[in-house]
Design goal:
Chain A is an all-alpha fold. Chain A has 21 helices and 2 strands. Chain B has one domain. Chain B is mainly α. Classes of the chains: A mainly alpha, B mainly alpha, C mainly alpha, D mainly alpha, E mainly alpha.
């Protein structure tokens, strides 16, 4: 057994433990100086990235990778699961890849962006902890463990949103997010308690195998509603979206980009619960929430687009754009769920269900890259000009050439213009939604066009136009920020040029994971 | 029998103290009321055969939470504004 | 036997807490509401693991007999510590909000400088 | 503002009704369903983890990873509080 | 700042509270308690001192950065024991000491208390206890210090 095999076998634990170890060490390493600490953190994340891709290579070959914590004896009995276990399938590893890309970009970006700030040791500690929390959320196979990591993610992100404590709005946004996410997490815990009381298990696969159409009762319905309400609240879907633009807009840019990942981890929770935990009962009317998801997605999209029109703050405008993008993901996956959960439609239009799912899932990674790039650009503009209001910006393209190019790439990608990656996923969503209902597809396309118009307006007013005296001698963003933006931009172009490759290697296993919950549930017989 | 009676009385007291904590205008008084609720909760944990949790709730809920709350109230305003 | 009164008390606590968060306008009252919900959920977990006429799951000097279930107790321990962590961070944010706006009333926030 | 309060009150009422029904419909107090997981732990704690306290055995052995998460939450909160109360350079 | 009576009583009771807390930590695998509970008790004792003697007196003795480092060490000890489980037992968090002849390796069979049992549990209890004492006290200390500074200005 060589070292790679051992690493592969242990990788689910190590992916979480490595950034955690880094976070615990950061206060000690921080004493050694600025560069040492930053290099240390980049090394930690690079090791994590290596482990994620190692694990991905195994999972994409069709396995479901399980890892039992502390398991020498009694790991798996025929009728119960005692210990915590991680269960990694295509969707989990897909989310883990997004997390690792975003956090690496954020850390590289922070090198220059945070240079002047105080409290950097704590900043990097919390950043690593947030990454840890997201990894835990997406990799775990245990519901209570999911709750614990959810709390880690939300506490760390709240503290980081309030990073600029001298800005009243930032603290207020952090407090609002904290209240929302704590109540959401407590609802999650309450429904975990209900499920535990009824089914005597905390393991997702075990619970899923016990929730059957025969046993389905009021308690299951209550838990489902509580879980979905809490997680959609945390993901920023329509009725409870108010905290999202504030939190995204007020946080430092390097945190906004990780927050995108944190919201998507909550979205992962929604998908995991709809498709896996309640996978056996997906055709019971109370569970088939496809239409609700479609409508919520549409509302989110429209709110995002309309509110983005009237924003004058650069980052808040992008935050509303991110809200609109969230709507697309929900729309795509909701369409898939609608078709899958309808027994009459299921056989005839299964390919459309798969296509909608593919679009929705593919859009998750595209959204992370596009919106992330735009946030980084906004941060770079703020760094150079100390100005966040669009009314006062103008003519900065001459001095910040690279940043302008990156903004242009992000603009085209976020509004779904070929050849960027946003086009590939949005096309999949439009086509499949059209099969469900043409009006929905038309609304989605119109929203996209409006988003393009808004972004082009921003491009003209902020980057082009006459040169303002104040910005006569602003300088281009520092190298580390350009590198971070460059990574995301090159990934956007790469994904846009080879969408089929990405869909086949990354998205296909994730879609397979959520449309075939039985393979996740039946890991017992599949061997551990 | 006495235990069953306690299982009825203590939860009702817990709800009553939490209601008091919410309704009082004086924030310091509601912090104290919350501490009383924590203490009753820890008693309830004890008779529910969870001594570990009872110790934790008594230490964390009744002492630390109250300390942090009192600190925060000292740093801000003591009375709740009239609506 | 006693008709789920502890469960109903738990739900009453959660509802009181939620009502506080939704209707009260004072920030510290909102935090107290969150804390009450937290306590309610903790009590719910412990109540789920209780068996009639049981003893605590500790073998040292135990008189024997059936034992109450240990897993919910372990979960509650975790939940209590998470609760105090959340509370501390929330109250520090409240203190900062007060420093900026000089009020705890949620309706009066939102003004002030950027 | 009035309309918003009305919506909030309505949704709170619905949630309350759901929760109360949940409390009434779950198993009777003190008589849980057959709990295989807990019974296994009660039976095997002494042999497998060597501890006499079942709760500590669950906290640190069977569900040790949760406890790591819990310790991390505390660590996060401390870091967060120190971060919030640090000295900020005003621009 | 409190009166002399409060100071004296706090000074007398603090060692008892601390010893009780350490007892709860050390006997976590035998009697009710453990790292968290004991840590919370010791932290409560420290807060008693803070209330009685005032923030300035405490901050001369313990700096918040020291507590931060102690907390990191506690957390590192905890995760370190878990990693040892990976190295010696094959999986993260394996209780590799239980059932061996090492310290704490005994297996209890009766209801009698035997401190030499529990495997990795006592080690983790100590690490978590250190972490919780430092962490909880650091939270209160930082808040109290920041508030007293604000009032002083």
């Amino acid at each position: 057994m060589n070292i790679l095999d051992i690493l592969l076998q242990q990788s689910p634990a190590l992916i979480v433990a490595t950034p955690l170890l880094g976070a615990f060490l950061t206060p000690l390493i921080g004493k050694l100086g600025y560069n040492v600490r930053n290099i240390f953190i980049i090394i930690i994340l690079a090791v994590t990235a290596f482990l994620v891709f190692l694990l991905a290579s195994d999972v994409f070959s069709g396995n479901i990778h399980t890892y039992v914590f502390g398991g020498t004896t009694s790991t798996v009995l025929s009728n119960t699961v005692i210990r915590i276990l991680f269960e990694v399938d295509g969707l989990s590893i897909f989310m883990a890849i997004i997390t690792v890309i975003l956090s690496l970009a954020a850390v590289i970006y922070s090198w220059a962006f945070m240079r002047e700030e105080t409290g950097q040791d704590k900043y990097y500690t919390l950043l690593l902890l947030m990454t840890t929390g997201m990894f835990g959320m997406v990799l775990t196979g245990d519901l209570f463990n999911f709750f614990v990591f959810l709390e880690i993610t939300s506490i760390a992100s709240c503290a980081l949103i309030a990073f600029w404590t001298h800005k009243a709005k930032a603290v207020e946004a952090a407090f609002n997010y904290m209240v929302i996410s704590t109540i959401g997490a407590l609802f999650v815990l309450l429904s975990i308690a209900f499920l535990y009381g009824k089914y005597d298990a905390l393991n997702i696969a075990k619970l899923a195998s016990r929730i059957t159409p025969v046993s389905f009762s009021f308690i299951d319905k209550l838990s489902l509603i509580l879980l979905l309400a809490a997680l959609t609240m945390k993901a920023g879907i329509a009725p409870m979206h108010m905290w999202l633009p504030d939190a995204y807009g007020r946080a430092p840019a390097s945190i906004s980009i990780i927050l995108v990942g944190a919201t998507q981890a909550s979205l992962y929770g929604v998908f995991r619960i709809c498709f896996t935990l309640y996978g056996n009962v997906i055709q019971i009317p109370e569970v088939s929430l496809g239409w609700i998801m479609v409508i919520l997605g549409l509302i989110t999209m429209l709110i995002g687009v309309f509110m983005a029109m009237i924003q004058i703050d650069f980052k808040k405008l992008i935050a509303y754009g991110a809200l609109a993008e969230l709507g697309y993901m929900f729309l795509g996956v909701g369409t898939g769920l609608t078709i899958l959960s309808n027994p009459q439609l299921s056989l005839a239009s299964n390919s459309f269900a798969l296509q909608a799912m593919k679009g929705g899932i593919f859009h998750i990674i595209n959204d992370a890259l596009d919106v992330g790039l735009l946030f980084l650009v906004a941060g770079a503009v703020y760094y150079a000009t100390k100005e966040s209001s669009l009314n006062n910006l103008g003519g900065i393209a001459r001095n910040m050439k690279y940043t302008t190019v990156f903004f242009l790439i992000g603009l085209l990608a976020v509004s779904g213009i070929p050849p960027m990656n946003g086009f590939a996923s949005k096309l999949l969503i439009y086509e499949s939604v059209y099969q469900l209902n043409p009006i929905l597809a038309i609304i989605a396309i119109l929203a996209s066009i409006m988003l393009l118009a808004i972004m082009v307006k921003v491009f003209y007013s902020a980057f082009l136009g006459p040169k303002i005296d104040r910005f006569q001698d602003i300088r281009e963003a520092p190298k580390s920020m350009l590198i971070a933006m460059g990574i995301l931009a090159s990934l956007i172009i790469f994904f846009g040029l080879f969408p089929d490759l990405i869909v086949n290697t990354l998205v296909e296993p994730a879609v397979k994971a959520i449309t075939h919950p039985t393979s996740y549930i039946l890991w017992l017989t599949g061997g551990v | 029998m006495i235990i069953e009676l306690l299982h009825i009385i203590i939860p009702i007291l817990i709800v009553a103290t939490s209601l008091v904590a919410v309704l009082l205008r004086d924030l310091m008084a509601s912090a104290i009321s919350l501490a009383a609720m924590s203490l009753l909760l820890s008693l309830e944990f004890y008779i529910l055969q969870a001594p570990d949790v009872a110790i934790a709730e008594a230490g964390v809920g009744a002492c630390l939470t109250t300390a942090i709350l009192v600190l925060a109230i000292k740093a801000t305003a003591r009375m709740e504004e009239e609506s | 036997m006693i008709a789920n009164i502890p469960f109903l008390a738990v739900m009453a606590m959660i509802i009181i807490g939620l009502a506080t968060v939704v209707f009260k306008r004072n920030l510290i009252k909102m935090v107290i509401g969150v804390s009450i919900i937290e306590s309610g959920v903790n009590l719910f977990l412990i109540t789920l693991g209780y068996r009639e006429h049981s003893v605590a799951p500790i073998y040292t000097a135990s008189p024997g007999g059936i034992m109450s279930y240990p897993v919910p107790q372990a979960l509650t321990l975790t939940s209590i510590v998470i609760g105090v962590a959340v509370l501390a961070l929330m109250l520090s944010l409240v203190i900062y909000i007060y420093r900026h706006y000089k009020t705890l009333d949620i309706r009066k926030l939102g003004g002030g400088e950027e | 503002m009035e309309g918003r309060m009305l919506v909030a009150a309505g949704s709170l009422t619905i949630v309350s009704i759901f929760l109360i029904f949940g409390a009434l419909l779950i198993h009777p107090f003190g008589v849980p369903n057959a709990y295989k997981m807990d019974q296994y732990i009660i039976d095997h704690t002494q042999n497998e983890s060597g501890a006499n306290n079942g709760v500590t055995a669950v906290v640190f052995d069977y569900r040790g990873f949760d406890t790591l998460g819990e310790a991390t939450v505390l660590f996060t909160a401390v870091a967060g509080v120190i971060l919030v109360f640090r000295r900020v350079k005003k621009e | 700042m409190m009166s002399k009576i409060v100071k004296t009583i706090a000074g007398i009771s603090f060692p008892f509270i601390t010893i009780y807390g350490l007892y709860v930590i050390a006997h976590g695998h035998l009697t009710p308690g453990g790292g968290f509970q004991g840590g919370a008790i010791v932290a409560s004792g420290l807060i008693l001192l803070l209330v009685a003697y005032g923030t300035d007196w405490i901050i001369e003795k313990i700096k918040e950065s020291h507590l931060s480092i102690l907390e990191s060490l506690g957390a590192l000890g905890f995760i370190g024991v878990a990693f040892l489980g990976l190295i010696f037992g094959g999986m993260f968090f394996t209780n590799f000491i239980a059932g061996t002849s090492m310290l704490f390796g005994g297996i209890p069979t009766s209801t009698a208390a035997n401190i030499n049992t529990g495997g990795t549990l006592p080690l983790m209890n100590f690490a978590v206890g250190l972490k919780v004492i430092a962490g909880l006290f650091a939270i209160v200390l930082v808040m109290a210090y920041a508030i007293s500074k604000e009032e002083g200005e």
